Amino acid sequence: MSAPSLDLAPARGLLPRASSKGTMGVLTAILEARTGQQLAANREWRVETVLKPVLRDLGLETLDALATAAQHSTAIGDRVADALLNQESSFFRDAAVFEMVADAVDSLRATKLNRRPRVWSAGCSFGQEPLSLAMLFAERGADQHDLPPEIIASDVSEAALARARSGRYSQFEIQRGLPIRRMVRWFDGDGVDWVAKTELVRRINYRRLNLVTDPPPVGRFDVILCRNVLLYLTIELRRQILDRLATVLRPGGVLVLGAGETVIGQTEAFRPSARYRGLYEPAVREG
Amino acid sequence: MKTCLVVDDSKVIRKVARHILETLNFRVSEAGDGREALDACLVSAPDVVLLDWNMPVMSGMDFLRALRDSAIPTRPKVVFCTTENGMAHIRAAIEAGADEYVMKPFDRETLESKLQIVGMA
Ligand SMILES: C[S@@+](CC[C@H](N)C(=O)[O-])C[C@H]1O[C@@H](n2cnc3c(N)ncnc32)[C@H](O)[C@@H]1O
After folding, report:
1. Which of A171, A179, A188 is nearest residue B103 as measured by Cβ atoms?
2. Which residues face B49 on adjacent strands?
């Protein structure tokens, strides 16, 4: 996949009036410098919309002014990057994958494991992915065990993590992928929002982690989910990150990518899993 | 082609739902209250019923109970679609045999997601 161009199509007439292509270049470069993410061609038109609240908060009039401010203030740069990140997610996204992950954890149990199974949701957005895992593990009784699965959830965006930690979802968000019985069991209504029960959120260990610049969490994992995160990174970055993920996956562990993603042609560190369709396992068994 | 019966006393809601469902490849029929819906189901049961709660003549709940008590040979999936968004209502609906629950206002994605969950989309 070639890197999407950062240039906007001027013919579309959707360019923010006050800003030049130069401004757009500065803003998208801020995103890429912080996260490795290149702005997808199909999201360029959203730049003005998603940055509007940032402009309003900062009392700025134009994207030009924002671009200048962001170049001089790390905090403002962070806000710009946060706003431009694609943080779309849903509960039980690609539902079959979650069943496979739970199967993988169950089969570890069967080996009389004398430690906690470790699962990492890398790029967890607002927390729907780790919460889905936590619900499933709990429902399968995995947490009744002396050694319940450890779930680490990370994201580059502090704002996304804050939302994930709060476990709070709008009526629209809560209805994406979450079966109603699970909502009743694991969430409480609070005004117009729905909030995950503390006992569920408590099972998840949230932390900020930039996959491009930060080392992975300490220790090895049995399952790593890195879904719909690496899509808009350059191929070099994608390879580097996948190779780094391979170093913290245990032999026999599995890597889960998004439905439209693959490791094929990206890295030699993984190969398709023989046991779990669509999942990947480390290519080389380390001694 | 899957069939869906949209039961709502609001013509506008029926129209919006119909439009979305048709883009999801459903053949859609409509009823304006629970009684009409029950009659329709007894003649020919749909695969899915999208069901409002508060309606004149016969409410969504009364329809659902009657449907689950009826002798129709199939078991249509019933997806409530209502502004009754409190936990008590949701629990009552599940208890009465609802398969899913859409809290209004809804959009295409919500409906599609819920239909997927009941194995219909
Ligand atoms: C589209 S969401 C996917 C969420 C979830 N994994 C899913 O599949 O539904 C991508 C997430 O990756 C995060 N992200 C983007 N670049 C990242 C980076 N360099 N390091 C860590 N997280 C990153 C974004 O903030 C966003 O929350």
Report:
1. A171
2. B5, B78
CATH topology of domain A10-84: Chemotaxis Receptor Methyltransferase Cher; domain 1 (1.10.155)
* Average model confidence (pLDDT) across chain B: 96
Are the C-beta atoms of residues A106 and A96 closer than 8 Å to each other?
A: no
Predicted model pTM = 0.91
What are the residue ranges of CATH 1.10.155 in chain A? 10-84
E strand residue ranges, A67-138: 118-122
pLDDT score at A285 = 52
- Residue A88 CA: nearest ligand 1 atom is 1
Which of A42, A156, A233 to probe ligand 1 with, by most ligand atoms within 8 A of CB? A156
Q: CATH 3.40.50.150 spans which residues of chain A?
A: 95-282
Q: Structural domain boundaries of chain B?
A: 2-117
- The class (CATH top level) of A95-282 is alpha beta
Residue A72: exposed, middle, or buried by beta-carbon count in 10 A (0-12, 13-18, 19+)? exposed
**In the CATH hierarchy, which top-level class contains the domain B2-117?**
alpha beta
Closest to A175 (Cβ–Cβ): which among B91, B98, B113?
A: B113
- Ligand 1 geometric centre to CA of A112 (Å): 34
What is the widest separation between alpha-carbon atoms in chain A?
Answer: 63
10-residue stretch averages of pLDDT, chain A, 287 residues long? 38 42 87 92 81 95 94 94 95 96 92 91 98 96 80 96 98 97 97 96 97 97 98 94 96 95 93 95 72
Which one of B108, B113, B115, B120 would you mutate to disrupt binding with A, by most A Cβ within 10 Å of its Cβ?
Answer: B113
